[in-house]
Amino acid sequence: MSQNSIENGLVLPEDFTVNYIMKQQVNVKVYTNPSGSTGGTVLGIIGAINNEFNLGSFNGSAIISIIQENVGSQEKYIDFLVPGLIGFAILVNPMFSLVEISSQYKKNKLLKQLSLTPLTKIEWLTAKILWYIVLSSMSFLLIAAVGIFAFGANINLTVWLVPFLILGPMLFASLGMLVGKVTKNPETAGVIGNVFTFPMIFLSGTFFPIAFMPEYLQTFAHVLPLYYIVEGLNNVIVYQNFIAAVVDIAVIGVITLVVLVLAVKLFKWRED
Prior knowledge:
By secondary structure, the chain is mainly α.
C-alpha cells in the first residue's frame, strides 16, 4: 500500500474463512490515512458490514473484530498534514509576492527605471526566483522543525525533497509574474491573485483529500500544478514512493518550463 500510495485498505488474515465457519475469534485490519476524511468513511462502511456479519451469524457476538492501523510507517495525523503545509508555503510566498511586486513596480514606474539599467528582465526574474527558492526552503525547515520537535512528526528528510523546493517556487514565481502582467493597479492585483490561488489551495489536496469531491472537481484538480507538488511531497514524506514522485517531478518540470518561458517572453519593462 505504501509503495503505491494507497490511503485505505482492508487486510483479511489467511485463516479468516476457517475461523468464521468455526465461530472462532478473528481480526481484520483496516489501514487508513489519519489526515483524510476518506479513512473515516471507509472505516465506517467496513464497521457496518462487520456488525451485520456478527449480528446475522453470531447473534451480535464480536467474532469478527476490526483493528485500525495507519498506512506506512507513519502513526500520527501531523505526518500526513506536513506535506500539505509545505505545498501551501511553496504556493503562497512567491505567488502573492510577485503579483503584488509586479503591479506595484508598474504603478510606481520602477520597471521603466530598471529598463535604463544594465539589468535584464531575465536576470531580474532569476533573482526573484532564487530568493523565493531560499524563502521556501526556510519555510520548509521551519515547518519540519515545528512538526518534529513540537508534534513528534516522522518526516522523511531526503534529497527527493529538493526538486519540489526548487521547481515549486520557480513555477509560482513565474506564474505570479504572468498574473501581475494582466493587473492594471495594486488594488486589483490581490483579487486576480486570489482567483488563481484559492482554487489550488482548496482543490489540490492541500488540507483535505479530493476523493470525496464530485468527479468533475477531481478532474479539475489534476489540472492544477499544486496538486502534483502536494502529491509528490506525500509520496516522498509519507509513503516513500519515489517512483511515483518521479512522475510528479516530471509533470511539475514541464509545467514550470512552459510558464517560465511565457513569463520571460511576455514580461516587459515598458508597457506598450
